[in-house]
Predict the structure.
Amino acid sequence: MSFQYAVLGGGRQGTAAAYDLALRGDAELVTIADRDEAIAQTSAAEVNRLLGSEVARPRQLDVADPQALTEFLRPIDSFLSAVPFPLNLGVTEAAVAAAANMCDLGGNTDLVRRQLEVDSDARSAGISVIPDCGQVPGMGTSLMTFALELLDEPAGVMLWDGGLPLSPEEPWNYCLTFNIGGLTNEYFGTTRFLRDGQPTEVRCFDPAGYGRIEFPAPFGELEAFVTAGGTSTMPWTYSGKLQYLENRTLRYPGHVAQWKAFSDAGLLGQEPIDVGGTAISPRDVLHALLAKKLEPAGEIHDAVLVRVVATGRHAGRRAEVEVNLVDLFDEQTGFTAMQRCTGFDGAIITALMAQGETPAGAIPREISVDRQRYVAELRLRGFQIEVEQRFTDQIAAIPGNA
């Protein structure tokens, strides 16, 4: 059986997702829609070039037009929204109206919880709506649940993840592999963790959540710190079932001091301030100043690091499970590690929805996707996943809080 897929947004992640759907999703057609027709055409041409076929098709579409979006989605079996997250609530409503399975790259937990309110309507339409399907949340979410399932009595889980340049350059030692708006969204406000069994609000850059963690060469010691959105809906899903559930973002040393200074100065704020009689958003100024400085020249050679440690009991003994994934820039396709880990994740879920492998309704990622099947799909795509299960004399203290 073959399917008609769509990807909304023809940027880096959308292009990688369209490629994976065309290659591994039993695709009859993958339509890449973007408000900018030239971007859609470039994305589709790249997918077709890599595959040596004409399975991808461009389409000019403004997803902010609900009627046009709904009509576009009616013949679509399943689609990925790779547009900026503020648009996803409207996209979700169009998906239900068109009865098209939907997942998205997400990134904002408050908005995701509003999307999940269409659960009854999605079930009536016979479709799946699964937000937050990217690198983290998304890949990290399923790897956390995968680790928890390997314990008979899980107590808690910790996730570390980050996208890093393989050859960091001063002064930033960082490069953008996605839109800068996604980065500053992660660095602003608060997030939710599970602590003592209850959802708990924690501020980004919380000093008590800062630590250092060692990874194999060439990465070495990295900073681990609190950012927003990585745990998504998991603190509510596991409330009263686990003692703790947290995540930390990984960067090269020095990154936190730079960005916390921006935060303390108010440059991550979105409320306009008066500057010489003109209302200006501080975050817009920061974007204008930094985006080009953080954009690498030429090909992006990057890595994505993911580490999960779950603790609890197994076979009557205290135990922990560690899961590690390291992915690198792909020389063959030219896709960055971030494109693979984000776009391929979204493509996997898009295909599973089309194949009827996910339940109907608007359902959080952690309870809508089979963990074993997901890990098998990652391995099929060449992701190296190391799993170690070990018994311990006592349950480890919550990592990353040094």
Residues 105 and 134 are 5 Å apart (CA to CA). The first helix runs from residue 12 to 24. The chain is about 35% helix and 30% strand.
